[in-house]
Design brief:
Layout lengths: L26 E2 L11 H9 L13 H11 L6 E4 L1 H13 L6 E4 L5 H8 L4 E4 L18 E5 L11 H9 L6 E4 L20 E6 L12 E5 L1 H14 L6 H11 L2 H24 L11 E5 L5 H10 L2 E2 L1 E2 L8 E5 L3 H18 L2
Parallel strand pairs: 1-10, 3-4, 3-5, 5-6, 6-7
Antiparallel strand pairs: 2-8, 7-8, 9-12, 11-12
């Protein structure tokens, strides 16, 4: 680091995104992207805005907010468009966490929660998952902290039923509960219908996964109107033109083409079931996934070996080094052809390691 770098960030460990190597062509099954392109309608709506880039985008994303409100049956004052769900989480930490109100989240979950807390100097608590890598709702009751729960959780893919999520929300009446639903469309239950009943709930969603728009950077926050105003106050103070006009138009197009999205989700779920069946036949163990990835480990081949050897063969999966999960690899559910190539490579690797 340079001698000008602020001391308050000297010990910061930044979030490490999934690899995006450019040295060769890979089968990318490491960052939970969709194997499908964006909706044709999303593409055409986005293209219309390309000749208007000299103009700022709408700072309140009015047209997109109206579309989101209509689709999810909430008020326009109960939704906020953001630059990917990471911006939503960043805003939530700024708005609802401080020295008096720490954050709390599982010890194995999306790594951005911890990093965002560190950036803003927010104290936090990490609560261990149980021995089956599951969240225990009762661990979060009356926490006295801002609660962050990914549902389904990442990297495990395990989803809590809506009843359990509601217990966490009801169990923290004096604190905000942030439910991160990046993967909910693949098998989870959304907490958005609970918004009218709870003033302390915000739900974070992204277009990156089920809507095939990871490169567009679009997400949204749904919640009580007063919480949305709080978040908007912070947003206007940090990044008022946070959603560009091309991305905004693409999001509107995607929302109006739900048949396309629903078809892709069905295919990904079918491919996930195929992958789980084949992995089981190869001896892998994994928790049941409600996401667009499978978190798997092999009893005789280490996670590090699987990750490294697959990469040498041109296939990227995600490997984590935390002690409890270092024997696992997280595999994005890609196309059937990509999964067949992965499985063929795994068969060879397992055979070679058993010699």
């Amino acid at each position: 680091m340079s001698r000008f770098f602020s001391e308050k960030y000297a010990s910061l460990e930044p979030y490490v995104p999934g690899e995006q190597p450019q040295d060769r062509k890979y089968i990318k099954l490491n960052t939970n992207e969709s194997p499908f392109p964006p909706s044709p309608l999303a593409q055409s709506e986005a293209a219309k805005e390309l000749n208007r880039l000299e103009l700022y985008s709408d700072p309140v994303s009015g047209a997109l907010r109206r579309e989101l409100a209509s689709f999810y049956r909430i008020g326009t004052d109960e939704v906020l468009a953001v630059n990917g769900s990471d911006e939503a989480l960043d805003l939530a930490v700024m708005a609802f966490c401080d020295g008096k109100t720490p954050a709390v989240f599982p010890d194995i979950t999306y790594g951005f929660y911890k990093v965002a807390a560190d950036v803003y100097g927010v104290p936090y608590e990490e609560i261990p998952l149980d021995e089956d890598l599951r969240i225990r709702p009762e661990d979060y009751f009356h926490s006295g902290k801002t609660v962050f729960i990914a549902n389904p959780n990442a990297p495990t893919g395990i989803a809590l039923p809506l009843e359990s999520i509601e217990k966490i929300i009801a169990g923290n009446p004096d604190n905000v509960v942030v439910v991160d639903e990046a993967y909910a469309d693949f098998g989870g239950e959304s907490a958005i219908p609970l918004i009218p009943r709870y003033e302390n709930l915000i739900v974070v969603r992204t277009f990156s996964k089920s809507h095939s728009m990871a490169g567009a950077r679009l997400g949204f926050i749904a919640g009580n109107a007063e919480l949305i105003r709080d978040l908007d106050t912070v947003r206007f103070s940090t990044n008022p033109y946070n959603v560009n006009r091309v991305t905004m138009a693409a999001g509107i197009g995607a929302l109006r083409d739900q048949e396309y999205t629903a078809k892709n989700i069905r295919t990904i779920v079918e491919n996930r079931e195929f992958l789980e069946k084949e992995l089981s036949g190869l001896g892998f163990g994994f928790p049941g996934s409600s996401a667009n990835f499978v978190f798997a480990r092999h009893p005789r081949v280490s996670g590090e070996t699987l990750y490294r050897t697959l990469k040498e063969r041109g296939i990227l999966v995600r490997h984590f080094t935390a002690p409890r999960i270092r024997e696992y690899i997280r595999i994005t559910v890609g196309s059937r052809e990509e999964l067949e190539a992965l499985l063929a490579a795994l068969r060879d690797i397992i055979k070679e390691e058993q010699k």
